[in-house]
User: Fold these one by one.
Assistant:
Number 1:
Amino acid sequence: MDPISSPSEHDVLIVVDVQNDFCPGGALAVPGGGEVATIASRLGSRFANVVLTQDWHPADHKSFASAHEGKAPFEMTAMPYGDQVLWPDHCIQGSHGAEFRLTDATLQKAQIVIRKGFRPEVDSYSAFLENDQTTPTGLAGYMKERGLTRAVFAGLALDFCVGFSAIDAVKLGFEAVVVLDGCRGIAAESIEERLTQMREAGVQIVDAI
Ligand code: VGL
Ligand code: ZN
């Protein structure tokens, strides 16, 4: 069954990190990020199950360049779990930038909000596993318990949180679909890299329209 036009009760729409800081005017603005809310809303109206993720960092989070002396945003650093991009301060817990930029319809439809990136020492792109590749967010258990077997993704950013979420979904035994026109990405190079990795992992990439 086509998950976009007629999702089943086993499908879940996962709306990734559609928050003020990832939209124009925000601290880590994704080009065109503000356009995602409308498409997420339209998609969400067709789904019985909607989950939101929310990037949710403490002010001293180690993924922030400001936490590393002499480092600037978008430089790299080595974390105990591997290489890590350093970001501008963004999505700080309780801040305006961390609030959702979604329609009321989507917010009301959401059944659970998975917050991630709240451990100061570990970043978390994927909605399932933090960047150490071992700490679970709880989403896989939630989906299993609810009989949700296929995850359909829209949101921000395609090359980071959406991409790694979809790849992890497949690794964890779910089907994964990314709605390309329901996503926006940070940079052309990382978008290409992630699209290739997603295709290799067996993620289905579709358009909503
Ligand atoms: C994200 C970078 C840092 C994302 C979150 O939502 O894609 N990217 N934190
Ligand atoms: Zn973040």
Number 2:
Amino acid sequence: MNPNVLSYKDYLIMQKKPNNRDSLFDVEHIKEDFIFNERVAQVFDDMLDRSVPFYHEVILSIAKILQSTLQNGEHIIDLGCATGATLLQLSSLLEEKDFHYTGIDNSAAMLDKARLKAELFSKQERLQFLLGDIMNVDQPSASAFILNYTLQFIRPLNREKFLTRLFTNLRPGGICIMSEKIISHHPGLNRKYIDIYHQFKKERGYSELEIAKKREALENILIPCSLEENRAMLQSAGFTEVEPFFQWFNFVSFLAVKPLS
Ligand code: GEK
């Protein structure tokens, strides 16, 4: 590794600076819905680190899937790429592979941060970031779509149509990797999983008030489906092999494969 290039571990340590710490809901502020603006982009990497269980392990698993599925020269597209954390890590983990990476997001603030990080890691040649609505994605012959924690922000009524669009864009044998927060239709289990998740956040330094306020701000904005509903949507879109490769209580990651013919 080039010693002049920052490692991701060093970057995460830099993120621990107070102004990069997610304290968005640690203040008395006017009740407002959650939006992906500059304030969120500034602290987003810390938010992911402390709010998404096994975020890095999921990326390590995705790297293994891509390594064993794609050929050199193929194109990986991250939809709802936010600050580019997934693509940056994948491009480092898969340095020996000549993959092309595109991230798409409709938040300019998130993409500003993604581009800055790509420069910081000297990855600007490999990664491109595009501002746009993923509902209109037009990337024919894509080899892999990554949709991590993003479908949950798309209106439920539009989700199946959107997944069908991804399926149509993919080359035969192409894959869709999708991670989501989920609900359980068993009320007792659902409650238990939410409690365990809130405990996870408390252990990472969020107060009960911050957790409650964030939950309120995301109400009607982040709308999770169950594991079964997500699987059924991927299957209805045309994916034949659909399997979860990771689950931690109310978080799941799927691998969905488009058949060869
Ligand atoms: C990660 N995947 O690091 N078009 C484009 N972008 C959108 C749209 C849309 N219609 N709707 C939402 N977004 C990332 C994390 S965050 C998840 C993804 C979270 C974008 C939105 O701007 C945000 O950057 C991202 O989807 C969701 O693994 O904040 O919980």
